[in-house]
Amino acid sequence: MDQSVSLPVRATRLLGFNNQRDVRALLKHGKRIERELFRCVVRRTANSASRFGFVIPRSIEKRSTKRNRIRRMAREWFRARQTQFQPPVDLLIIFKKSVLGAPKKIIYEEFTYSLRHMV
Fold first, then answer.
1. Ramachandran category for residue 16: left, alpha or beta (phi over 0 → left; psi -120 to 50 → alpha)
2. Do residues 75 and 16 touch, judged by C-beta distance below 8 A?
3. 109 Cβ contact list (under 8 Å, min separation 6)
4. In the structure, how many helices (H) and strands (E) does the chain have?
């Protein structure tokens, strides 16, 4: 992802970050992990808790129900493992089109692999 990418203000609210400046800093200074189903950008933070953001572009799937299903699945996985992120991190997951046909088990295995390599 290009470092000059600007996310709409609406997207930053959905991501759980305080403002767009936080997202820009994450994209500029964060460590990138490239996987088959998604891209991760992670950075340690001074906050007391980890923050997670999920981006599922409309170009991947036009129907919001499909995009929301992926977002809910990812949010639940990270919520269950939030305590494993020590020290706290800011994390942005940018999904690729290949996530649409992937079974839940494979997606969770990719998340687990990424978790081991980012912390």
1. left
2. no
3. none
4. 4, 4
Sorted by where each starts, the structural domains of the chain and their CATH numbers stand as: 9-118 (3.30.230.10)
Residue 10 has pLDDT above 70, yes or no: no
CA distance 91 to 83: 14
The residues facing 53 across adjacent strands are: 92
Rounded Cα gap, residues 30 and 79, in angstroms: 21
Q: How far apart are CA 26 and CA 18, in angstroms?
A: 12
Which comes out higher in pLDDT, residue 10 or 68? 68
Q: What is the pLDDT of residue 2?
A: 47
Task: Assess contact for 31 and 71: CB atoms under 8 A.
Answer: no
Residue (of 5, 114, 1) closest to 52 by Cα position: 114
Among 6-10, 33-37, 104-108, where is mean pLDDT lowest?
A: 6-10
